[in-house]
Design goal:
By secondary structure, this protein is of the alpha/beta class. 36% of the residues lie in helices and 20% in strands.
C-alpha cells in the first residue's frame, strides 16, 4: 500500500511517515506521565505533612509575637483582643504620643515601647 504525501510517494509499512513517535504524545505516554506525576505528588505531600512524630515537636510557630502600632482607639482594642488569646505575646507597643505610650505600657507586661515605628 502506498500513499502520496507532499508529492512524495512513500511506503506506509516501514516508512518514517508511519513512525508514531513523530506524531506527538500517545495514550501510553499520557498514562505513564499521569502515573509518574501521581507518584511525585503523593511523595511530595508525605514530605510536606511529615510523620506522626513531627506533630509533637514544639517550634517557633506555636507562639505568635506581635507589635501594636497606634494605641488609641482601635489600637487599644487590638491590645485587649490579643491579650485574651492563647499563645500570643505582645512584644512591642508603638505610639508617637509618649503619654499614651506610657499609659498602655502599664497594661502590657514585658512589652518594649517605641515612639517611632521605624525603630521596632
Amino acid at each position: 500500500m502506498e500513499r502520496k504525501i507532499d508529492s512524495i510517494e512513500t511506503n506506509t509499512n516501514n516508512s518514517p511517515a508511519n513512525d508514531k513517535s513523530d506524531l506527538g504524545p500517545t495514550d501510553s505516554s499520557r498514562r505513564s506521565f499521569i502515573k509518574t506525576s501521581s507518584a511525585i505528588v503523593a511523595g511530595g505531600s508525605f514530605l510536606i505533612s511529615g510523620t506522626k512524630a513531627s506533630g509533637n515537636i514544639i517550634g517557633a510557630n506555636d507562639r505568635v509575637r506581635i507589635a501594636v502600632a497606634g494605641l488609641n482607639g482601635r489600637g487599644g482594642a487590638h491590645i485587649g483582643g490579643w491579650k485574651g488569646q492563647k499563645n500570643v505575646e505582645i512584644v512591642a507597643l508603638v505610639d508617637p504620643d509618649k503619654k499614651v505610650l506610657a499609659n498602655r505600657m502599664k497594661s502590657v507586661e514585658g512589652a518594649k515601647g517605641f515612639a517611632d515605628v521605624r525603630k521596632v
